Amino acid sequence: MSAQAALWVVFHLVVAGLIALDLGVLTRTPHVLSTREAGLRSLAWVLLALLFNAGVWWARGPHDGLAFFTGYLLEEALSVDNIFVFLLIFRHFAVPPRLQPKVLNWGILGAVVMRAAFIATGVTLLHTIHWIVYVFGGLIMWAGFRMLRAPESAPAAERLAAMRALGARIAPEAEAADALVLRRGGRLYATRLLLVLVVIEITDLVFAIDSIPAILAVTTDPFLAYTSNVFAILGLRSLYFLLAGVMHLFRYLKTGLAIVLMLVGLKMLLSGIVAIPVGAMLGLVGSILGLSVAASLFHRPRGAGVLQ
After folding, report:
1. Domain residue spans in the chain?
2. What is the DSSP string of the chain?
3. pTM over the 0.90 mark
């Protein structure tokens, strides 16, 4: 077995074990994660990602180590936007807090499969059709511009409005069901919880259209692009319960993310003229995100508190 194949095998074995531990042991009984529990789990996922990053650095050198870290930082930052939309979805469908982890569990597993398919397709296109890099660059630039101009609730509102017709087709007795499907008279029926899961997956599909080209602007290595994405996604559930109540405090983070996306898109558009080193991209991404967070914390709205 080659070293590259061994890395793929080890990664998937580790991830499968972590998912089994997280979903099968730590959260076997659905419950709302406290701030402390969510913080510890978020920290654990970050430390695991950094440990894996150290392994990539040791096995493949500093260039790939920096590429993984830059991709992970970018995807982790973009996932914060997912959290805001997930919060709107749960509020819109009145999902009880104790059932939100269940929806997020299935949604994250679906997202891992979806991102793998998107990355494989994107890498293949970039390696076979060179000019597609400019299409990807344009998409990322447009995503950043749209994020900068559009109201925060617009993306979620559009998708939620499109799903209302499906919600009307759910039987009344399935409204408050805790399961994703119900069996009545030998037939399976969808529940409101399944509808919420479908909305979550559609939302992630829309986000993936923006985020996958962004990670491919950092690296076209499928292993680095995929693993950095997976680590960011797996920590998303804990991050949701850690940040959902204080998202309104990070008022300038969306602006920072928009600027980062536009810079990443510009990097792809200029790829045929000038090659921007990975280290420089890491510095730019980290600096912009750090400044946007600092600006949010220092210029909080008067009387701002934690959402309950």
Report:
1. 39-298
2. --HHHHHHHHHHHHHHHHHHHIIIIITSS--PPPHHHHHHHHHHHHHHHHHHHHHHHHHH-HHHHHHHHHHHHHHHHHHHHHHHHHHHHHHHTT--GGGHHHHHHHHHHHHHHHHHHHHHHHHHHHHH-TTHHHHHHHHHHHHHHHHHHS-TTHHHHHHHHHHHHHHHTS-GGGTT-SSSEEEETTEEEE-HHHHHHHHHHHHHHHHHHHHHHHHHHH---HHHHHHHHHHHHHTHHHHHHHHGGGGGG-TTHHHHHHHHHHHHHHHHHTTTT-PPPHHHHHHHHHHHHHHHHHHHHHTPPTT-----
3. no
